[in-house]
Structure formats: structure tokens, C-alpha cells
Amino acid sequence: MASRYSVIQYVPNPIADERINIGVIVFNEEIVKVHFLHSWERINSFAGEDTKFLRDFAKRMGEASKNGLLFPNDNPSSEQSRVERLRKVSRGWINSIQFTEPRGSLENIDNVFEDTINTYLVDEIPTHQNMRDRQAAKRVVASSVRAVLKDRLGNRASEFFKKDADAIVKGSRSSHNFDVLVANGRPYLAAHGISFEIRTHKETLDALSWWIEDVKQRDPDFPLAVVTLPPKLKDSGNCQLHDTYEHTIETYANLGASVLLEEEVPAWTNQVLTKANLV
To answer: Are 113 and 140 found together in one domain?
Structure first.
């Protein structure tokens, strides 16, 4: 049975269209599952206002899903299927809480649920307000690869640079949403950023291991990079963070990924594209 998923987003100013992911909903015609962020600190900073109404909405969504509803006030007795009802909401709601257009997957609902949580929700545990998080690592990857493409291709760079929902890489068993993909008819490389300046949930790190393994099983030679923001200087307070970092990058490297520091991204990107004769 096909599964569907949608990302739940907060849009404080619909005119500016600035948005941040706050939850995901995954469903088929039998089951509905929802998951929201555990920590709302980033949302509070993004909004600049009290976001209690978002937490209240998350609670009501959880209660609705237990009753097989897609959202509060969903009408399962209508002639429309679940995907049709959610598609109508995704296209019609213009308030500060919005749903993305439902997308499909052939994976079972449990796998899709775990994958969407790890892909779309940034729920790191901060250790210091000046530390860079996963989103910062993502920006490093995107800006570095885009700069190299612009140097090499000029105005044609936009034809090759893919990110966010367009940066999909096929694996042997599933497809995975990396931060950046360079492709135009064929994929040339993909890259993903991870921050170890903060403590990141183990599920996020493990999910990336699975992505790397799956992509490399399909094509062992496909250029795939993990760009890391390492922990700050080691002291007695972050020994565990350093241990996690060392273990994780070793795992990624053993699976076949190129593990890079941010300053190494341009050279790696140029090397891959030169080998592919992309000029």
C-alpha cells in the first residue's frame, strides 16, 4: 500500500513567505501518523513571538491522528480520499500553519515516517547559543557547491544546482533527500551537512548512514560527501561529543562517503566535476 507524507510548516508572514518546518504527517488509507518538534526554541526565535498556539495545534493534531483524522475538523465521511482531502488543505490554507503538497512513497509507512522526521525536522539539542546547528551546516554545503558551479559554469550554474526537495538521490532500495545535488540529466555529485558543534540526535546520524549505504549499494562510484562542522576545542565538558564525532565520521567514511571539513568542499567539488568533464 502506497504511503503519503506532508511537511507541516509555520509561516509567520505569508506575504514574505518565510517558513520553517515544525512537523510531518504520514498516512495511507488505514493509518495516520504525525510527529512534531520536541524543542520549540528555534521556532520561538524564528517567530519572535509566543508560539503556544503552535504547541496547542500539535497537540490537537496528535489527538486527531489517533482517531484516523488528518487534521482537526477533517471529514472522513466525505467522498474524497485522504490524499485528496490533504491536497485540498495544502492548496487552500493561507494562514500561518500550512501543509506541503502530499508526496508519495512505495516504502511502508513506518519507514516513511522515520525518514521524513530525520529529513525535514531539525530537532538538535543545543549546547551553546553560539554553536552552529544542522541548518548552518546545510548552508555551508549549499553556498560552497553553488560558488564552485558559478565559477565553472557562469549563468549555466542554476541548471545544475539542486537543493532541498529537488536534491533527490536514488539508492538501491529508496530515494534520499540530500542537501545539495549537482545534476542535469545525470547526477554528478551529492553532499550533505552535519553539525557536531551541537549534540545531534542519534536518529539523525544513523539515518544519514543508511542513506550513504543505500546510495553506494546502487552505485559504489557515485561521489557523495558529508560536510562536517566538528566539535569545538576538546575539554572535559564535551568529550562525549568528540567521541561521537570520531565514531560517526569513521562510519561514514567506511560506507564510502568523502568526509570533508567546510574548507575542503570547494576542492572536492572541483575535483569531482573536473573528472566528470563538466566545464
So the answer is: no
